[in-house]
Amino acid sequence: SKATVSVLNWLPRRVAPPPPHTTPYTMLRTALAVLAVCPPALAADGARFIVRFKDEAAHRSYAALTVQDLANGTIEVDLPRWHAVAARLSDDAVAALEADTRVESVEIDHRRSVQAHAELEPRGAPYGVAMVQADQVAEAAAPSKKLCIIDSGLDMAHPEFAGNGNIGGSDDPAGTGKWSEDTNSHGTHVAGTIIGVQDGAGVVGVNAAGRLPVHIVKVFGRRGWAYSSSMVGALDECVDAGATIVSMSLGGYRASSFEDRAFARAAADGVLLIAAAGNDGTTRDSYPASYDSVVSVAAVDRREALAYFSQRTAQVELAGPGVDVMSTVPRGFGPGSHADYGSKSGTSMATPYVSGVAALVWNHVPACTAAEVRRALGATAKDLGDAGRDHSFGHGLVQARAALDALQASCGAGAATPTPSTAEPTPPGQCTDVTVDGGAWYVSNPYYD
Length: 449
Hints:
By secondary structure, the chain is α/β, with parallel strands linked by helices. It contains 13 helices and 16 strands.
């Protein structure tokens, strides 16, 4: 892109360090003032950077500027936990910041997008619940492990979620709207796979009793993309809300060292991170799924065959049902007479099956660590494709009952075995005649760098 070319132009260039009395605050104020008067081509193209300072004092020195410039769109996100800010900067501003000894790093803020793919043949009630053995494990009576979904929000007025007091959320600081609203449909679909209630109507989720504590962080608007800095800010929201599982049906092709560091720290602090492997059907890595700290999820169909669009990489760790997945959509978004439900395909749809199983299992053995749960999910997965771990399926299809049995025999020794669910699949006729009107409400493989 033109922005990328412009960035490459400044990479070899360096400027003299600013005078000793120059602070990050005055330096950024000067740079942003120049942008306001004569914005260069790079800023006009929307190039966005993550600026990280070396200590808290440097970050605090321009905190007031952050509030001021959030309003006019120059500084987009403040990340105090990381002494960083995401901002739109000119070539000269970037070079000046790189030369300052108080600045640790300046890197491009890469885009991240939802990982939903246009599907072809919706076929009614979810088949994935039985495939992942979620119908063999009852939801814990008092789940303590909270799951956080980073996505496009959730239609809280949907009959599947209305009145569920175990759902909370955080609005997008970038201004895409309230967490309890979803103009994209992606986030509502993901949530239905995890917590759709078994009530004889609609769809059934992996955790179908309505007891799982869930936190929704909105980062996507109607267009279905955000930035790597948005992911870090959303991760902070998840951690602050007490989540120990983070589900991310999203990704992008460019790695970010800043984002990588944030996810690595969260994993080290005991958070289980799960993300979509990507929908391009190639061997190219997608991020954040391809960071070592994150479980990368591939998609399979109802016959346990790899979806044609699913990425094939060394980072793929687990697989979940991701083709023609029936779930919730914002009221009126779906086609036909069942306008509150619809079918989508993508590694985005496989990811909530894996994160939902992680929550279902972990809440029965809360003494186990995130690392132990991650290992158990891999060790007990149903091997698909080549024997052992491979680039298409990872360890294989996630299995809830098998993982729980393994955890109870190790870190969860002595825990009571839950009574298998007696819930029946959604009765015939419930959302079985849904058709798709050209896929108008799907985000079809939108990759950005």
